[in-house]
Amino acid sequence: MDIIYLLIPIAIILASVAIWAFSWSVKQGQFDDLESPAHRILYDDDEDMIPEDARQDKDKNRSQDSK
């Protein structure tokens, strides 16, 4: 029964820290834009992951287009 006198204040302190952290992050704008980080991955440049023999040379394509 004595442990409850220790656990209740610890729970109140942890809950107040969690509420403070949430309100701080809302004030700092952490939740303003939830869409663009998910879309940003679609525009990542993956050229280094393409094998050398499967790459299309941009310079070759440009020179063929100009002919």
Automatic annotation (TrEMBL):
Stated name of the protein: Cytochrome oxidase maturation protein, cbb3-type
Signal peptide feature range: none
Ranges annotated as spanning the membrane: 6-26
Ranges of compositional bias, category Basic and acidic residues: 52-67
Region: Disordered, residue numbers: 44-67
Keywords recorded for this protein, A-Z: Membrane, Transmembrane, Transmembrane helix
Pfam family, one: FixS
Domain of life where this protein originates: Bacteria
Organism encoding this protein: Marinobacterium stanieri
